[in-house]
Write a structure and sequence with these properties.
It is built from 4 helices and no strands. α1 packs antiparallel against α2. The radius of gyration is 19 Å and the shape is elongated.
Amino acid sequence: MTVRPPKSFSTSYSASGALSALEYELLSERADALGRHGLKVEKAIAALQVLDRNETTPEQRETLLDDAADAVWAFFIQREICGLRDSRDAVRRYGIPSQVMARLGIVRRK
């Protein structure tokens, strides 16, 4: 659910006010999508770390690495849509492993 600012805060009630309301809605949707992608990255990295601690087969590890790389790739694309071009802070904040970073953008056969 998105919330718009009250109309009393806008400078006028003309078409430009409607445009700014539309821009506000678009920006809030972009931010919401970025948050959802961030949660997917956190879950993928956490699943990878849990299986690193346990005994796992190489196939399971490859699948988890591929899933994490796909989630991080989609997250980086969404960040660029929001105007955030530098991904170094996201790599540090989410603790994205170098094995995942090496797989970004690779198209795999299913």
